[in-house]
Amino acid sequence: MSEIAAKAPARPKRRLIVSRLVPYLLLQALIVIATILGLRLLQPSDPEDFALSGFSLKEGGTTRPVTLPHFASSRYSLPDPPLYTGAFTFRSGDGGWSVFLPRFSNAVEVAVNGVVVLDSRRDANANRPDRNTPQIAAIPSSLLHDGSNEITVRLFVWGPLKGFLDTVYVGPDAALRPAFETRTLLFVTLPVAFSAWQSILAVILAIMWLMRRREPVYGVLAAAMVLGVIQAFVPPPVPPATVSRLAGVLLATAPIESALIVVFSVLFFGWRWPRYGILLFAPGLIVFAVGLVAGPPLPRILFLVLGIPTVGLSLVLMACITAATVVRRQDAASFTIGCAVTIVLTCWVHDMLSVFEVITNERTFVSRLSYSAMLVAIGAGLTWRFARALNQVDSFAGQLVARVREAEERLKANFAGEEARARAAALANERTRLMRDLHDGLGGQLISIVALSERGQEGATITEAARTALKDLRLVIDSMDDIGGDLMLALGSWRERAAMQLRPHDIALDWRVATPQGLPLHPELRPWHVIQIVRILDEAVTNAVKHAAARHITVTIETHDDGRGPYGVISVADDGRGFTLCDDGGAGGAGQTARGLRNMRSRATRCGATLDLSSDESGTRVRLQLPQVFPDSDAAAS
Amino acid sequence: MIMTDQGKTGEAITILLVEDDAPTCWRLQDALVKAAYEVRTAGTLGEARSALAASAPRVLLTDLRLPDGHGVELIRETRRRFPDTEIMVISALGDEESVISAITVGATGYLLKDAFPTDIATTVRDLVAGHSPISASIARFIVRRTQNSTEPPPGPALNTARLTPREIDILWGIAKGFSYAEIASHLGLSRQTVPGHIKNIYRKLEVHTRSEAVFEAVQQGLIKL
Fold it and tell me: How confident is the model at residue A581 (pLDDT cuts 50, 70, 90)?
């Protein structure tokens, strides 16, 4: 059971690999065929009418007839190069004549009738064995004479590659030049254009990497491109070069570059770079080191032995990596790169076959060209990906802004709702307090008015009760007003009402405020605090009027501060006859006064204030000490 | 005291009392007649207008809620036609809503309906003598409006922009229950100048501006544009 379970996922996986890999490999095979066909088709056509193939080769003292194209043996010495001698027939009247050499390796010196008309060694591009540079030279008409003319080609060869001389064309310049121009465009101008493009991409990728260090893939590709550009523009390590040692060192660029491309593809496809992968750089570094120490031709030999296979190995590795990625991901990027690698690999194989003379009739190296094209394509793709990522970031930022706005609006709505709820709650609280206050004061007084009128009481008593009710109503209304935490504003109104109450009794109200400010500000002061305080003061004044027979009432308002913040003290003192206090602080009698005093105390407690009563025959004094901070909740009320 | 006042002017001070509640009207009338004022009464806006058409009173005391209209209209008309007439509003509770709206059309104070008879007489006497009374709660209402707040507090609209800092200081003093003498000493004024300041405050709170006058004139067809 468990075996089946273990095998079950493996089988679909294998089937998946097969179902994905086989079509991919078939496609790559098609691409290989297409590439080969393309190379055949794109082979520039030369003006065969003017071809010279039959030459006699004088080499090492022996002379033998040869047919071009011809491979000359590899050698490391420049003196006494192989000398190809041929003849052509000149007919005057065809305009100026030229000699056109589509392909040679490594350098040629062409003489017509014994006069040198072309020395390719002066052209740095032509000295590059990988560039397929053609050469053309006009033959001065004075050199030519009707009939047979002699042409000699000295082929300079520097090992380890064999020398190569393709068919030589001699004919009217107008007939030869188009073929030359085509070859120049393909094998000289195009590589330069690719290299320029590569250098621009190198700069762009380097900047990207500098700005985004955590993505080394850009940096690796930039480094590879820089090496490619250096290789393209630096003179080749051949004898005419003045800085041959530097050039020898720079031979190392190709293997290092190819290794870097492998690193790039590993990183690009999100694989882990294996530790032994560093070995891939070893051939390049060896060539580099040897180039530093030894002069030519050793670096060139090493390059051929180590460098070129490294490039091939790198291409094969890349092909494997992309194939694996295609199987795993089936995405456009890996697919495209895979196809490009196949093309480059085919070109590389083609070049190898050419080097080993399997393909004998030509020696056109195309891998460098195709590789450059691939790099440019990869760079463009990366830039495109980067731009798309930027767009994604933009749209993400846009989405984020929209989301934040939405959330903000929701929050605002919530907040508004919360605020409305809080306001409603506060309003309900206030209403409850107002009802309680009206019930405590006005309600009771109106009921006593009803009771008094029903009993046919004296008018004065009813008047008294009604006036008290009115006074209480005014107090409740007054305390609803916003006084901004300044209790003095409430006391100002109270003073008027108290004075009005006292005037008929001929009691003088003496109002003493210690400072113009009066009392400290209390932002936490609420209407219900004000009502309690004013009721305490009312009770004190009423007691003085009703029971003490006072002539003067003095209200003193002071602010004290004993280090813990200011607090107010309001005192109401009369010059009446006073009363006896019980132990519990209540009045001696069990009548209204006692109840009034109890009420005053409980009201003071509810506002966090302290009430002190002192009474003797010289008068009564009520001292109300306000709290530093008024309590928020009316705990004592419940 | 009253006799002396009347002696100065040489004739009885005429008061037009506009109050629709008969017992209240009797009560106020009794108190004023006892103080030797000449009192005419009106129970409606219409009656009050015909009484005004007959002759201009020295003092107009009017309730705000009348059976056929609002006392504010009567105050505004009287103020325009008889600038010398002192106007007071009769209020049950002295609440800001009624008093301030009366002040903005030209009233200079209020009288509580349950005031003691002596207080009624004294208030009118002071008013005639040029002492516009102002209560602590009204002063408080005005000064609260002079404080900077983002949204206007509830209640009738009030333009306090023309009040001077000194006048606002005086209003603060009144609102906090200080007497005129105490206010004068706090602010370094003469006690006698305080009532004048209060009169000015009333005048400034009146919304009878030139542009409003022009507007009214256009409304009544006196000016053609």
Answer: low
Q: Taking CA atoms, what residue in A is nearest to B114?
A: A467
Contact between A27 and A38 (Cβ < 8 Å): no
* A210, amino acid identity: L
Q: Is A606 on the interface with B (CB under 8 A)?
A: no
B141 touches A at CB < 8 Å: yes
For chain A, the domain total comes to 3
Q: With an 8 Å Cβ cutoff, is A484 touching chain B?
A: yes
- CA neighbor of A218 nearest in space, from A200, A206, A228, A230: A206
Chain CA centroid to CA A637, Å: 61
| CB-based contact B116 A504, cutoff 8 Å | yes
Non-local (6+) Cβ contacts of B180 within 8 A are: B191, B194, B195
DSSP three-state, residue A568: strand
Shortest CA gap B52–chain A (Å): 32
Contacts of A492 in chain B (CB under 8 A): 136-137, 139-140, 174-178
Separation CA A377–CA A348 (nearest Å): 18
> Does the beta-carbon distance from B182 to A478 stay under 8 Å?
no
Q: Pick from B49, B48, B17: which is nearest to B30 by CA? A: B17
- DSSP-derived letter for residue B113 is T
Residues A303, A288: Cα–Cα separation, whole Å: 9
- Note whether residue A576 is domain-resident: yes
Distance CA B170, CA B176 (A): 10
Structure tokens at A485: 């935490």
Residue A380 lies in a domain: no
User: Which domain-ending residue is among A312, A346, A365?
Assistant: A365
- Give Rg (Cα) of chain B: 18
Considering the domain architecture, whether residues A487 and A563 belong to the same structural domain is answered as yes
A6 and A65 housed in the same domain: no
Tell me the average pLDDT across A31-44: 85
Whether B130 contacts B195, CB under 8 Å: yes
Q: Can you tell me whether residue B172 is helix, strand or coil?
A: helix
Q: Are residues A155 and A221 in the same domain?
A: no
Same domain for A625 and A566? yes
**Looking at the complex, does the CB of residue B137 fall below 8 Å from at least one CB of chain A?**
yes
What band does A431 get if pLDDT is binned at 50, 70 and 90?
A: confident
The pLDDT of residue A355: 80
As a whole number of angstroms, the distance between CA A631 and CA A533 comes to: 13
CB proximity list for A143: less than 8 A, separation 6 or greater: A112, A113, A115, A117, A149
A307: its two tokens: 């460098």
Give the pLDDT confidence of A243-302 residue by residue, as tens digits: 566 666 777 888 888 898 888 888 888 888 888 888 888 888 888 888 777 766 777 788
Mean pLDDT (chain A) is 82
Contacts of residue A518, defined as CB under 8 A and 6 or more positions apart, other chains included, come to A487, A488, A491, A557, A559, A568, B176
**Residue A570: closest CA among A621, A526, A614:** A621
The pair of three-digit structure tokens given for residue B36, joined into one six-digit string: 């030797």
Contact with chain A for residue B144, Cβ under 8 A: yes
- Contact residues, chain A, for B109 at CB < 8 Å: none
Specify whether the CB–CB gap between A431 and A418 falls below 8 A: no
Q: What is the pLDDT of residues A212-235, one digit of tens each?
A: 888 888 888 889 888 888 887 776
Alpha-carbon distance of B149 to A477, in angstroms, equals 22
Question: Is residue A18 located within the same domain as residue A62?
Answer: no
Residue ranges and CATH numbers for the domains of chain B are 2-132 (3.40.50.2300), 137-205 (1.10.10)
**d(C-alpha B113, C-alpha B61), whole Å:** 11
Closest-CA distance of chain A to residue B136, Å: 5
A520 CB neighbour count, 10 Å cutoff: 18
Burial class from Cβ neighbours inside 10 Å (0-12, 13-18, 19+) for residue A64 reads: exposed
- Distance CA(B163)–CA(B32), nearest Å, equals 34
